[in-house]
Design brief:
alpha/beta, two-stranded antiparallel ribbon
Length: 276
């Protein structure tokens, strides 16, 4: 995973609601392809920064131009988290894709982590574009992902079981009233919550481009989760070129200490080489 001669450009991309911070990693020679990273949700973004940075440099070391875009309200871009909506983030995916395509004259591939895969899924369905796709530990159901995030409030406040249920019910009621709620330091607006709740991992029927879905498992991983395996089998039955790849390692997007999974980068590079 050599990084000799790589160049990095940090810049702001003009966009509705304020500029988006972008980091572009460029290989030493002419790029063989372009890759857009779509980040995970909330604190998972911070936990995964080192792993994503290592991967971006490794991909660029093999000839890929890699764009990491900070979405609206996610810290380095304009706006607060409470300003973000699901649709604004989906639009950011399209904005980054178009910028990469214009910069290098190549049809980009996509690379997502966790809930970033739901954004890619929604954008692919809306745009009709058939881009190759690497999905790292994809979230399958947005509503379940949101529920797990809301439970952080009860966990952070160390509430008893009955109090935790009451707190969750209160949060849900506030969300249904369209109010902004705050969980673990993140303000969630109605436009973000409703979009995440409705999002599911899916591929458009007749999709021609390849996709590789990676899941991390502790110990010697031999298979992905039953939920992802079932989804991938259904897509393969429809004739879609998609693979499910288990990778042994730690859940770097949520571990207390910052961790990395080199095997995930190596297997992703192998998958990229197989993608046209």
């Amino acid at each position: 995973m050599g990084a000799t001669g790589l160049r990095r450009e940090a810049f702001f991309m003009s966009a509705p609601g304020g500029d988006r911070f972008c980091l572009l990693t460029i290989p030493s020679g002419a790029p063989c392809g372009a890759l857009l990273f779509v980040p995970p949700f909330a604190e998972e973004l911070n936990k995964s920064r080192r792993m994503v940075g290592l991967a971006a440099r490794a991909f660029a070391g093999q000839g890929w131009a890699v764009l990491q875009m900070d979405l609206l309200g996610c810290g380095d871009s304009a706006g607060d988290f409470g300003d973000a909506s699901w649709q604004a983030w989906v639009d950011d995916v399209g904005r980054g894709y178009a910028w990469l395509q214009a910069r290098f004259g190549l049809a980009p591939a996509l690379w997502s982590l966790r809930a970033g895969s739901l954004l890619v899924s929604d954008w692919l369905g809306a745009s009709g574009i058939k881009a190759p796709w690497l999905a790292w530990q994809p979230v399958i159901n947005g509503k379940q992902h949101l529920t797990q995030f809301l439970r952080l409030k009860a966990a952070n406040e160390m509430l008893a079981e009955s109090d935790a249920r009451a707190a969750m019910a209160e949060l849900r009621a506030a969300i249904e009233r369209g109010e902004t709620v705050e969980v673990a330091g993140y303000a969630l607006g109605a436009g973000l919550v409703s979009g995440l709740e409705q999002a599911t991992l899916r591929l458009p029927p007749g999709r021609a481009a390849a996709a590789a879905m990676f899941e991390i498992a502790s110990g010697e991983a031999t298979a992905v989760s039953p939920a992802l395996a079932s989804l991938v089998a259904a897509w393969q039955h429809e004739g879609i070129s998609v693979s499910a790849i288990p990778v042994p390692g730690s859940a770097f997007w949520q571990t207390q200490e910052i961790e990395v999974v080199p095997a995930l980068i190596e297997q992703s590079l192998a998958a990229l080489e197989q993608m046209p």
